[in-house]
Every structure is written in C-alpha cells, then in structure tokens.
Amino acid sequence: MAARKKGPVFRVTGLSASQPDDELAASLKTTIDEVLTEDGDSKLTVYLEIVPSCYDKDKKVALIEFRGGAPAFLVELTDKPLNEYQLEMGTTDISFDRHFFGFTQLYTPKADASTTAE
Prior knowledge:
Blueprint: E1 9-16, H1 21-39, E2 45-52, E3 59-67, H2 75-79, E4 84-89, E5 92-97
Antiparallel strand pairs: 1-3, 1-5, 2-3, 4-5
C-alpha cells in the first residue's frame, strides 16, 4: 500500500473563541472553499483542526493541511515562509502563516486531563 503524501500545513490565527469548535471549523472551511473555487483550486482537499490559543483565552487557532499542494492564494507563503496572508472571514480578519513563530498548540487536551509541569 502506498504511503499517503502529506500536504503543506498552515496556521490560521485571529479566530474568535466565542463560537463552538465545530461551527468555527465550518465557517473557516466555507471561507477557504470560496477562495479555492474563485482561484480554480477546488480539487484540493482541506483538513483542519481548531485548537486553543496559547496566548489569549478569547482566541483560537486552526491548523490546516491542503492535500494536493498549496492553494494559489497561499503559494507565496511556500516561497516566503516568513510572510503572512490576511483574509476576511465574515467580520473577522484572520491570518495564515507557515512560520509558526511562538507557541502553537497541536491538539485540544481533554477537559478532565490533569496537567503536570516540572
């Protein structure tokens, strides 16, 4: 069986934590799908995960993988990974990046999990 080729991963910041994760993910996916359709990249497959922000309890972050390559609207971030790309999602400005500067949580911990720091 052939190994599945992973696509480029982007981080999205500026997402409001006021919506439940599933609604936020659906809004973000709709926004991305609209841009992909406009750019003719509708064959790309989008996988995304919503995680808490490490800096602001009122914000969330998304990790997005595009299977099939980087979409046209984000290809500049592949060539210049220190740049950011801003997009409007409803009334919110969100930012895409590939540099992942700072802390980025990779998953949402279980609510009942204890945290140990040494």
